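Team,

Forwarding the record for the chain on the shared tracking sheet. I've put the sequence and predicted structure together so nobody has to dig through attachments.
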Amino acid sequence: MTSYKWLIIASPADFDQLGSSIDLEFQPARIAAQLKVAVTTAVCGILIEFEYIDKDYRSTYYNHYAKKGRQYRDDCVRLHFFEDCVAFDATRLILSCPGNNRLEDHYFGYIVLRPTIVATLGRSIVSPKMRQGARGRAIQSLHKVHLLGETLPVWGFPSMAQHIDISVCAHVSCWAILRHYSERYAAHRELLIHDITMLAKPFDPGGLTPAHGLNLLEAERIFQSAGTYPVIVGRKKAGEKSFYVQLLAYLESGFPLFIAMSGKKHAIVAAGYAWRPVAKAPTYAVSHAWEQVDILLAVDDNSLPYRCVPLKASTAKTGTPGSMTYSVADFDSFIVPLPEKVFYSAEAMERYSLALHKGLASTLSLPAENVLLRRYFITTISALRRYAREYESQFGDELVNILMRLKTAQFIWVVEYASYEQWKNGHIAGRAIIDATASPRDPTPVLFAHDENVGIRFDRSSAKPVADVMNLKRPLCTPLGRMEQNLRPANAKPK
């Protein structure tokens, strides 16, 4: 029978209560040590849910642990995290918030503990707002948690620790990305962790083979078998600009990235980023927004999600007890699982965004090359229209009308041009919309471009596209804001 226990967390030392509340096969002392350094002081209550049936653990239990000589339990423990305004009535089994507070506004998500004796951190969905140090923006999906008759929504990214035997870091990274896709997009089916191990090989790998890990091509096989269209991008040399530019472009597009670090023999998921708190002056003739990145946010199986990863090794710090030290400089390659109808790559966009800037400069008021900052990302035309409607007072009626009528495919590339001074204020000089289904050999993949006053619509229905220049009649003295909506804010919540 399922039972519950409420723990009040007034200081980091209170996490030690887990050790006396949960059986040793769940490794509660180790989990408590991780929570002490990884969780903000906004977490003031933990509800322990005993005898929880976890589908991901069950997938490995029936296919692996039940076959072992040692006996393993088939149930798990689930920990739910709340703010200080939440109270628990142990007699009536009711969670409540006094006043007009809604329970769902004060719930941070959960982690599952597996009875595997080692590496017990199971399937977890926690909000970045409870993660110490989390900042910037993170890829998140909405998860609905059923608890004591309540349905509690939480935005987060899936994570778990590797099992060490039936799955390692690469399996877990694939699982996390594909579980995010299944929650975010109806077209993707849910895959359990054991399903991931089966997809890696053309045969049943049994219990020994998965412990040896995955190579990059096997990870690619998993993403392809799961219905995505993976692209592998490798770094040819240390500090290669093109590698990091493509990484940021896909990350800003809302695609979580499978990151391989061959030197560290480790794999993680890149799931977010944060801009520099103070913008950095461009250091070369034509600059890209990658120069303005401060840290990346990682989902690492060694710790809770949203770990901050610095750009250079000199500033790399250990995330939680027992976790590995690394930086973005250790990234060797990544896999981006794309949807079917994206044919125009980030590599092609790097070349085209420069050529387009030169072509538009005679008609639009764009920054000169020596002060230019570019960024580009994939989104959907419906997302762009939602953004235009939300900021209608900034766009003006004419520009909103054009975007609502623009004929294009579902996926588009958005390119934004800004000067260094505009970037510091969150503004841009102009924007271009590119057909993401165009071929890299298409001479004119651009659909529409505009600055603060002038728009250019391109008719691509003939072999020689026609450009239609128009006055946008935007509100006077209203700057264009930088578009950031594929990812959600990840800033940790203060108490």
